[in-house]
Amino acid sequence: MKQMDTKTLANYINGEWMEAEHTAPVINPATGEEIAKVPLSSEQHVEKAVQAAKKAQKEWALVPAPQRAEVLYRTGTLLREQKERLARLLTMENGKVLEEARGEVQEAIDMAFYMAGEGRRLFGQTTPSELKDKFAMSVRVPVGVIGIITPWNFPIAIASWKSFPAIVAGNAVVWKPATETPMMAYELTKILEEAGLPKGVMNLVFGSGSTVGDAMVHHPNIQVISFTGSNEIGRNIAAECGRQLKKVSLEMGGKNAVIVMDDADLELAADGIIWSAYGTSGQRCTACSRVIVHEKVKAELEARLLAKIKHLTVGNGLNEEVKVGPIINKRGIEKIKRYIEIGVEEGARLLTGGYELIEGDLKKGNYFAPTLFTDVKGTMRIAQEEIFGPVVSLIPVKSFQEAIEVNNCVEFGLSSSIFTQDVKKVFRAQRDLDTGIVYVNAGTTGAEIHLPFGGTKGTGNGHRDSGIQALDVFTEWRAVYVDYSGKLQRAQIDVE
Amino acid sequence: MKQMDTKTLANYINGEWMEAEHTAPVINPATGEEIAKVPLSSEQHVEKAVQAAKKAQKEWALVPAPQRAEVLYRTGTLLREQKERLARLLTMENGKVLEEARGEVQEAIDMAFYMAGEGRRLFGQTTPSELKDKFAMSVRVPVGVIGIITPWNFPIAIASWKSFPAIVAGNAVVWKPATETPMMAYELTKILEEAGLPKGVMNLVFGSGSTVGDAMVHHPNIQVISFTGSNEIGRNIAAECGRQLKKVSLEMGGKNAVIVMDDADLELAADGIIWSAYGTSGQRCTACSRVIVHEKVKAELEARLLAKIKHLTVGNGLNEEVKVGPIINKRGIEKIKRYIEIGVEEGARLLTGGYELIEGDLKKGNYFAPTLFTDVKGTMRIAQEEIFGPVVSLIPVKSFQEAIEVNNCVEFGLSSSIFTQDVKKVFRAQRDLDTGIVYVNAGTTGAEIHLPFGGTKGTGNGHRDSGIQALDVFTEWRAVYVDYSGKLQRAQIDVE
Amino acid sequence: MKQMDTKTLANYINGEWMEAEHTAPVINPATGEEIAKVPLSSEQHVEKAVQAAKKAQKEWALVPAPQRAEVLYRTGTLLREQKERLARLLTMENGKVLEEARGEVQEAIDMAFYMAGEGRRLFGQTTPSELKDKFAMSVRVPVGVIGIITPWNFPIAIASWKSFPAIVAGNAVVWKPATETPMMAYELTKILEEAGLPKGVMNLVFGSGSTVGDAMVHHPNIQVISFTGSNEIGRNIAAECGRQLKKVSLEMGGKNAVIVMDDADLELAADGIIWSAYGTSGQRCTACSRVIVHEKVKAELEARLLAKIKHLTVGNGLNEEVKVGPIINKRGIEKIKRYIEIGVEEGARLLTGGYELIEGDLKKGNYFAPTLFTDVKGTMRIAQEEIFGPVVSLIPVKSFQEAIEVNNCVEFGLSSSIFTQDVKKVFRAQRDLDTGIVYVNAGTTGAEIHLPFGGTKGTGNGHRDSGIQALDVFTEWRAVYVDYSGKLQRAQIDVE
Amino acid sequence: MKQMDTKTLANYINGEWMEAEHTAPVINPATGEEIAKVPLSSEQHVEKAVQAAKKAQKEWALVPAPQRAEVLYRTGTLLREQKERLARLLTMENGKVLEEARGEVQEAIDMAFYMAGEGRRLFGQTTPSELKDKFAMSVRVPVGVIGIITPWNFPIAIASWKSFPAIVAGNAVVWKPATETPMMAYELTKILEEAGLPKGVMNLVFGSGSTVGDAMVHHPNIQVISFTGSNEIGRNIAAECGRQLKKVSLEMGGKNAVIVMDDADLELAADGIIWSAYGTSGQRCTACSRVIVHEKVKAELEARLLAKIKHLTVGNGLNEEVKVGPIINKRGIEKIKRYIEIGVEEGARLLTGGYELIEGDLKKGNYFAPTLFTDVKGTMRIAQEEIFGPVVSLIPVKSFQEAIEVNNCVEFGLSSSIFTQDVKKVFRAQRDLDTGIVYVNAGTTGAEIHLPFGGTKGTGNGHRDSGIQALDVFTEWRAVYVDYSGKLQRAQIDVE
């Protein structure tokens, strides 16, 4: 990947690639090396981007949706052709292991084709009027300019969840990706350009949340903010958007639990936990950070987890043997360390891990040992707050009912999982677990792109990414009534 | 209606009717008479109501939805049986003429049956997983406790739009109706009780926005606020809800236009304008307050409107001959008067009306003469701001394209209408008019309950009342995946 | 029920009740008493009915669907008010026990409200055109005159499944009920009349299949035949309808199995089998007539079934203690007897029952002892052919896979059921059991009205009763394209 | 296209290309040259194909639908890459002009991507049960082996409408294309093979309807017949399928009218008529063969049509200037000639055309002059029967109402069109024209692939090709109920 070394990335505004005055280095979290420079844009860049988007959107909305969709089909094809290259770049900027990086690119590919399929759907409804000689229907119409703010942990997948439905529905986009992972944003935008997206429909503005993000949230010509990130920032965005009567879609934190019942296939449960807890080093919003285990099988589950953790190779994700990559940056490491201390102070028992890895080459990057606490109580801070690292808290319970209650006693509601053989428990769980996603006999990660993704309670504000539900925040419903009676007819009144 | 004189209304909390310490008089706007006393509740009432709702909701969510729906079917039946009585009460507290009051009660009846029909629908989706031996689906689940804040202008219809879908979906409700029109809230709650709604599922708390409304918006155990009212208050609610990551649905102001093209059936257009502009004395969010008229037919349209206005009897809505009832209160009158002055200052030409009516018995109530300005420019304040009274601004335009632009140049986006014979203009209009509702050859009012109701831009935040879309803010999507392969399968990765 | 004794029923054609020249006695299968006389109509009656329907349908289609639905809401309300009376009449003509008769009437009530809900739905789709300035949508339109032919075993429920969706969608109906159970048809038609259905929309013609049914199937002005009954007759109807290019919906036989796995809750399984096998004396198309049991639990299941069968009181269904009522007529008894002989000859082991009950008062009616064969092979005739009586064949199997295969090896595909605790088996079963309905941990009966009802393979021809899918055969899709570009635009060609 | 000369085509059965003993020549209708040899297969080929399909289908159904869809995405991509080559081949075997041939290939491309999009949709429904602790849903399941019989006039488009939804839904296919146009079938099958469709999922058997078609219709292991072709054959197929309780979807003839009202844009109407009447030489099921014209504009419309007809170059469709290609074969020519005679005898006035074209090179092919009758009565045979050639009958009418009646007075119900400026007439027309497709201000052809395609009355039997409605005949609904209460619960009975 020589050629990418310290490449200076550029904003993409109104179909032109424009470098910014200021930049920040992009660091490979696995090696500490600078791999690119990312623009630190100003409010002026946002202003230009919004004006370009506003103008382009009017034309784009008039392009028939099936033709808009052709751009996404081409995007999907280009992404597929470049999957391996993109995956490697993704690993370099984000740290996740190659296998996962490939999976993430695949997610963007799948979403491109899926949302392209909406070009010939975008279904509204025809429905009978209550009055004679009157016609009624609803249609989905674009909203206008969409501000998209995406995090570093799924730099291309989340971008695809948000931008593809926005685009196919006839909106224009101003996109601020995380400064940690700008290369995926750069590459995806390049591909959209190559796929023939008209200028101004997608505008990419790199920079900080406090400058670029803030300018977007405040801009009166951005009608929707679609944000994935921390609860704290999401809260501020939602407050400001509320003040402006701007639509806002939020996907934020999780404190996702795997429940292991006493009748579970423990080997399968352990595999599911390992994958969903330590994959991406726990830096997924759906990562498993709690295991709620029936006391009868607690000891055996612990043993199996410890055995599996021992075999988790930590290192540079470009190395195919590596199963756990680095933490995104030193701040991340520090946060995790603090929570280890908190956990210990709270009386949780540390079974393994709990420390930064600094041996050999690892010290150049940001690595943390896969960590397992046990004898955790559901109310402890390590069982309540999002750590965003490879840290799992085992919480023993005495019953199915208690497991459900512990699962539900956090402020988040993104994902949950249950391992059991019992069909009755399965159906109670899918009814009673209060998260937006429920897995049965699988870990807490692994959503498919055609189902709604998102969470309840503090995780979001009711909107969903992915699935056809993703269209909801990017379109408005328009009800259309045509009275062809030639006379004044009043609903509810002139009905026999 | 002797027996209702100065009846003291009560809150309904956890299935009990409880009077409050403080009350305010409810005044019939047509006569100035006190017709009831409405409780002015405190934060403690809200607290009790929320706790009751929280508790009741857990049980209610477990009642099968088809059985929850039975309560709404009974509600619809009871409303129908009492339609005439309710309509008269509604006229007394709100002022709208009897015919419209009957229409409004009918709307609640229709909504009861419609939402009851969701008991056996509430459709989610089954859809194939991308992995073998894996099952995927989405289900709608209730959100929890819904805070409903409703205005005085449709005291029972809007309440039905919000509470019926909330209830059938398995939520509990805390409802603050406008203090001007508490009797409809009282009656509807009585009927829900009689229909067998379990205690705590609907809780009615009368009082001011600053005390009761505020406490609801801030209460951590209310998960959704569904609000219809002014933009200013909606803005504050949305900001606060944003801060708390609370879901919020807003329906606010409109500045709705009827477009009259040069090929229009002018008699029909005039009828449509009269009905949608002066019905309910213009106090509808969808009321026509602008007429965008092609210059070729401007003179004739003015003449027809003036002729029709002359025949509009203004007075007490209980009198069947009356076509235009009172304004809700003196503050309303004052606001309208101010806008008359503003219009005149801006150079609009007053064709008729423009003054309060105070002759004879009218002086006891709050009446304003149906008012028509002409030669208005689209940018004038009277063509931009919501007046909420029987005041219409005629704006002449030279072309279809200009008409669309003038329609779209306001901050609101609720309703619009076009009168034309030309099918091409009809289909362009339904595409280009940027409101949430578009009427063709009908005025700006008269939505049917089974289509989505709500507006774009400053009118709302993307949610819709009525229609099946109303379910969106009262439910969360839950994606459920069941892996029955017995092994770890990873989406996007273990495909093929 | 004195007043019903030997009541002479009449046809209902074009809103008039008309007696026929010839009649046949209606016999209470529990007592052998004549309880009514049913008209044996001629082709002329059918002709009149079709002409009335054809004429009425044109007007009915123009009544707004929400207003058509009001008739069904009233029908549902009237059915509910008369539920107990109707249930008793149903027991008298059909024999099913009172509890089941009430359930059946409830089904018609539920269907009335459910299909009434379609009045404000009947959703078609709006969807973007691939060309600029072109609009596209689909709407559901009525087909015309529907011929409905219903069986005696669910005389009011099946009638409601077919007629209510047909009516709400804007069709007119000619209905030939089974001559064995005309009273439910008479009562339902009376109620539709009372509910305000315009004359000619529902036309009731009693009589034989060979005369009335045949005339309907051949009539060129009947556009759809919706038939529930035997495979032999269904086959002939479908052939004739095919020849005429008439739409036809068939629901026919079943040979439904309950699968009991070795991990099943055997008490629950036994309850489920007893209810679905011996309820309605096995005269349900979804009745369980096969039990596919894992050999490990075969003995215990047999023991539990025998114990429960012992407590099944057989007799007149009006007696609340009775659990199993009579067989519809002597022909039914004879058919069952033949199959008992066949089973014995094939080597099946008769565990209990196998004979007609003729002690005391039972001899006046048509009663057959609840019968259980065991050691049945899946290929035996008693395990392949529909007996339509209280006869169950236990088929032992060695594995889940074998159970699925045995279930699927019959020519029918209506209903199946599995009892197991194992979530993996549950999800495999719902995927692999090749019937139109699959139950888990419940018997083979008990469909709910809002889900599609019907079977695969020899049970039907792809259509479904109940659920919104019921609308499919009673409506045609109309695709509507409006080109408002003012120029010739060719799809697929003038794109891009 | 040298290499295609007299190429001998092969069947494709179980993934192998197999030549047949007997063949027939494939003649280019534009030149009379033999361009290929098509197998004339026997019942044994059908038998092998069905057995292969039956076996393959079991595996294919277990491939996750999103992966099945990948085959269609690749198919779409390959079709696009080969669009020009395929279009030229299509013109050679079918005769339609190149521009239309490209459009037809585009239709198959569009359908590939559209139906691929169903891989992640194929939506069924989750819906609440009426009983506690019970879960209910519906899923779409494949039917099994589908027999597809396609005509020569849209050899690749219609094949794509039928095979792509069948395949994505998990069925296997046995396909008999028309012997006149086997090359498109050959090419499409090649592409499906190249796209990775597993062997046995698509089986191509060339041959006659009387041998191959008949064997398919009678084969007990084919569960569905999807047929497009003549009414006579469709009728026989439907009768036989009925006898066997086989599902059958029919798309047959049309007698499609363009209505031209007195306010129509006559130039546009004439363009629409020319395109939909003489395109493909009128050999489209949706071709306009009637023009119902308001008497006020009859003369002018005739003049415009005559002027345009004069400029229609007839000839070999490979020549880009040619607008009207040949008739498929001499039988077609003879049939058209007969109808010209009939028309003249009936008293219709021949304005232009009416004869075979045999000058110069044209005599080698089968050409017929674009023909226009006027003063036709709606009841004449030329206005009632399908001619399938470039013959149009002008029928003057006095009113909108009469136009609707004339449109509806034929036995077919495929497509209709109205030219008018008047929005009222537009909406009445879309309600009252009794065809499955209605166009406004466009001719009778030009359906888009994502809307339901098909007709009412004698045109079909209620099923639809294309659109998501196409899935209906290729899937069965399965209702699944899971009772997790642990006790016997009876729907309709144990409620409340």
Automatic annotation (TrEMBL), chains A, B, C, D:
Record-annotated active site: 251
Domain of life assignment: Bacteria
Keywords associated with the record: NAD, Oxidoreductase
PROSITE patterns in UniProt: ALDEHYDE_DEHYDR_CYS, ALDEHYDE_DEHYDR_GLU
Documented EC number(s): 1.2.1.3
Aldehyde dehydrogenase domain ranges (all copies): 17-480
Homology family: Belongs to the aldehyde dehydrogenase family.
Subunit: Homotetramer.
Name of this chain's protein: aldehyde dehydrogenase (NAD(+))
Organism: Caldifermentibacillus hisashii
